[in-house]
Design brief:
With 140 residues, the chain is mainly alpha-helical. It folds into two domains: 2-91; 106-140, no CATH class. Helix content is 73%, strand content 0%. It has helices at residues 2-12, 17-26, 35-47, 51-59, 68-85, 90-103, 107-116, 120-129, 133-139. Helix 5 (68-85) packs antiparallel against helix 6 (90-103) and helix 6 runs antiparallel to helix 7. The radius of gyration is 17 Å and the shape is elongated. The N and C termini lie far apart (51 Å).
């Protein structure tokens, strides 16, 4: 139903897209959204340049919702948004996403985001887990 409402709004009333996304993201039905609907909502916020809300929606996506490769792509996008548009949230976002990357065995990506914000000890541990000794040594 959400997808249909957005499709109609995009075609006939673009000025309502923001309001529909806001209502759907925060309403009681938000708990019953499918992973694809959450992802679509996050992309919609990103396209409308409301990066804080986009980051919040991307963070709602957990490791049970998609495959590891797709999750890695989604979470790296979330990290990039935080780095570019929400510097005040980067540390918190990295702590959440780093842990999630480790849970899905994406050690290299976890290490990269940890290293990017100065969590060198966590980055080194992640590099060691994926046996990238050179990178661990450089980071140290």
């Amino acid at each position: 139903m959400y997808g249909e409402a957005l499709r109609v709004a995009n075609k006939h009333a673009p000025h309502l897209v923001h309001q529909i996304n806001e209502n759907y993201s925060r309403g009681p039905q938000a708990q019953n959204q499918s992973p694809d609907e959450i992802l679509q909502s996050a992309k919609m916020w990103e396209e409308s340049r409301d990066y804080q809300k986009a980051i919040d929606r991307y963070l709602e996506i957990t490791e049970t919702m998609f495959g590891p490769d797709h999750l890695e792509e989604i979470w790296n996008n979330c990290f990039n948004l935080a780095m570019d548009y929400a510097k005040d949230r980067v540390q918190d976002v990295v702590l959440i996403l780093g842990q999630r990357m480790l849970k899905i065995n994406k050690f290299d990506s976890a290490a990269d985001i940890y290293e990017a914000v100065g969590y060198f000890e966590k980055a080194i541990d992640s590099y060691i887990q994926c046996q990238k000794w050179d990178r661990a040594f450089e980071c140290a």
